[in-house]
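User: Alcohol dehydrogenase GroES-like protein, Vibrio brasiliensis LMG 20546:
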Amino acid sequence: MKAAFIKQYGDVETLQLGQLPKPEPERNQVLIRVAASAVNPVDFHLRNGMMADTGTHTLPLVLGWDCSGVVEQVGEGVDSLQVGDKVLAFTPISEQGTNAEFVAVDAELVVEKPAELSFVEAAALPLAAVTAWQGLHRHGRLAQGKTVLIHNASGAVGSYAVQIAKAAGAYVVATASATKLDYVTSLGADEVFNERDLEWQSSNQYDVAYVAKPGIELLAESACCVKSGGSIVSTFDEIAEQQVATHGISFTRMWVENSATDLEQLVQLVKEKAVKIPIDSVYPLEEIQTAHLRSEQHKAVGKIVLVVDPLLKY
Ligand SMILES: NC(=O)c1ccc[n+]([C@@H]2O[C@H](COP(=O)([O-])OP(=O)(O)OC[C@H]3O[C@@H](n4cnc5c(N)ncnc54)[C@H](OP(=O)(O)O)[C@@H]3O)[C@@H](O)[C@H]2O)c1
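Assistant: Predicted structure for Alcohol dehydrogenase GroES-like protein:
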């Protein structure tokens, strides 16, 4: 099968296109013919060797853990899906990825693609949106009427977080860099600030602070703005326990988990038009190096998507 993969860890030049053996679905798995895949920061981190010493992956490694496509083959024990079903999935980061013509996935992780979404849009949903969902609902204990602070609201996770928080009935204060404030306003945030301004820092006002980017200083500043009893959730950096304990707040450095249940909740929000799919750019699989550069240089506003099979349209 056609695939983009790395045979060694390193910079963007290590990404190559070629042929790899087509995977076989194991018991309780389906084989998906991939229409589109997406790029997330974890792709370039792994490409650079972030987990090289852990023995998690074998080379050649196919990156990418979002996909949309069509069920090509059904493994033994699967009765929830059929050949020809149009689907999307967030596949396990510990396994071979989705920047390839085919991927074998546990059927329990696969969700039906709604007709409203193209394959490109569907591939842009799973990893980033589930990260935002779990960060706010599971770790941040989001609820109606809560006041939520979201940093990096123009990134993929942040774009979904703003919309998920609004859909839950929260009051949303979001930050981004100066040129992206109109975009974040268009997502529905109630107040939008340049992250460098001090205005978002009026103390003790937030129930939840969601920090969806690296930055120890930003975490510490955000912790100071969370009400006693509230929570701060980070997608990247850690903060010292005593730093949050003095404020009476909880801290979670989250790790997103594969969950079809959470993904289905997001599909439902999309169907209800409460969540729009924020697409930054779309590249053919052959231009994966350009797509990785865009991600690694932090230029994206929303999701970067790779079209794997241009013949699969809806
Ligand atoms: N823990 C987990 O389970 C998990 C899961 C998914 C993602 N993540 C992490 O969450 C963060 C957001 O992910 P994402 O998919 O939303 O990323 P993304 O779409 O690539 O975010 C892009 C935006 O990040 C901002 N940015 C600027 N400098 C940055 C820097 N040095 N590092 C990171 N972002 C920078 C830029 O916005 P401005 O110009 O407005 O600053 C840029 O538009 C990443 O750090 C990612 O690694 C963690």
